[in-house]
Amino acid sequence: MKICVVGTGYVGLVSGACFSEFGFHVTCVDKDAGIVARLERDEIPIYEPGLDDLVHKNRVAGRLDFTTNLANSVKDADAVFIAVGTPSRRGDGAADLVFVESAAREIAANLSGFTVIVTKSTVPVGTARHIERIVRETSPEADFAMASNPEFLREGSAIEDFMRPDRVVVGVEDERARDILARLYRPLSLRDAPVLFTGLESAELIKYAGNGFLATKIAFINQIADLCEAVDADVQDVAKGIGLDGRIGAKFLHPGPGFGGSCFPKDTRALSVIAREAGAPMSLVDAVIASNDARKQAMAKRIIAALGGDARGKRIGILGVSFKPNTDDMRESPSLDIIPHLMEAGADIRAFDPAAMERAAEMLPGVDWQEDSYTVAKGADCLVILTEWNEFRALDLNKLSAIMKRPLLIDLRNIYTLEEIAPTPFTYHSIGRPAALRD
Ligand code: UGA
């Protein structure tokens, strides 16, 4: 069985590498010759633990190729996965399908023998049928069927998520296509991963509904954290208390500075547009988007308030700028709202991130980038933990406080406990804890 994956971004590269690990022959296609050349040298353009080894191993074994030649790889393929980008369209936030549509036209022109065309990118409901029309118009004789196979990979644990998924979702309405996809995912179904076959629209909606629900959970616990502060409750206890209810579940109940990344912000906006356009607006999702936007601003205000209400001339040290740990991804990271807000208020920002500084430097001009947490803290009026990288969990707090101008720690990820902070000179602010633990 031969697979062609169009697009070597996050989704395409991880899926392609994992399918080749199952033993299938995979060709990953990208228009960008520079990216293809780098991949052929095992240089991975994204930060994803374990991906370099997986690519190297399967490339050397002859199961994983990279090319700019879409035509040849589509001709040979039993399944073609579309994994190109679907950015938010400027203006209305709907997913922009321009890359998907042009991939579909090119694929259509090169089909040979029965082929299943699979959308792996996150695409609005109705896209699989839209692509089907494009392919039919371009190549009326082509023998093909559509499938929708959304991915549920998290950055930083994408390989583990692919290899041990909670479920695989396949929207498919053609028997031959269903057989091909069942064979592709057999290595996972043999390990008891549920493979859910649905119609095309349901599979497309499962992806948005899943991300919309997870984003709602986060927005909910963030508002509960605000309420905890107002009534002297502890959000860690509340999250544990509700999370033990199997119907709610303990995951994705960590309060923080708001969700970011390449998925939740984009997908909640797209879900809102899909729902409105379908005549079934989702006021809940709209409220989640608004509360998450407001939260990022509120976090900046909170830092300024901890500094006594005036950030002018104050030096603020920032630990972590990526939207979450184990990635260098800066897309829609809360740091991109919080840091400019603090700079506009007159603060001088020093920052460190274990992986994202190169990317962040272009997006956050004016920040003084440092090589470690301690140089960030030196002479600072306060230190803010924005991303919960493991290396920030065991800082030498006495050493840190001694080199700061003022021992003020604002932990927007709650990675420290009061017991750890109490013996240190720090004034400690965290999220959703009673005043006694918070201030
Ligand atoms: C998310 C989903 O978790 C994946 O299942 C999905 O496949 C992916 O989007 C996608 O659509 O491609 P990802 O964006 O990599 O994955 O990251 P998450 O781990 O979900 O975190 C997203 C944001 O929510 C981060 O900013 C994180 O800090 C925040 N978050 C997450 C919280 O604030 N609290 C939590 O409890 C969990």
Description:
With 439 residues, the protein is an alpha/beta fold. α5 runs parallel beside α6 (127-138) and α10 (200-231) packs across α12 (264-277). The model has no long low-confidence stretch (mean pLDDT 95). It has helices spanning 10-21, 33-40, 51-60, 70-76, 98-108, 127-138, 158-163, 175-184, 186-189, 200-231, 235-243, 264-277, 283-306, 335-344, 357-363, 373-377, 397-403, 418-421, 435-438; strands at residues 2-6, 25-29, 64-67, 79-82, 115-119, 144-148, 168-172, 195-198, 315-319, 348-352, 368-369, 382-385, 408-411, 427-429. It is elongated. α17 links the parallel β12 and β13 (408-411). The protein is built from 19 helices and 14 strands. The protein has 2 domains: 2-198, Rossmann fold; 295-438, Rossmann fold (3-Layer(aba) Sandwich), CATH 3.40.50. Bound molecules: uridine-5'-diphosphate-glucuronic acid.
- What general form does the structure show? elongated
**Strand order in the largest sheet:** 3-2-1-4-5-6-7-8
CATH architecture of the largest domain: 3-Layer(aba) Sandwich
Please report the distance between the alpha carbons of the first and last residues. Answer: 60 Å
Number of distinct helices:
19
CATH homologous superfamily annotation of the largest domain: NAD(P)-binding Rossmann-like Domain
Each distinct ligand: uridine-5'-diphosphate-glucuronic acid
SS-derived structural category: alpha/beta
Helix content: 40-55%
Q: Could you name the CATH topology of the largest domain? A: Rossmann fold
Number of strands: 14
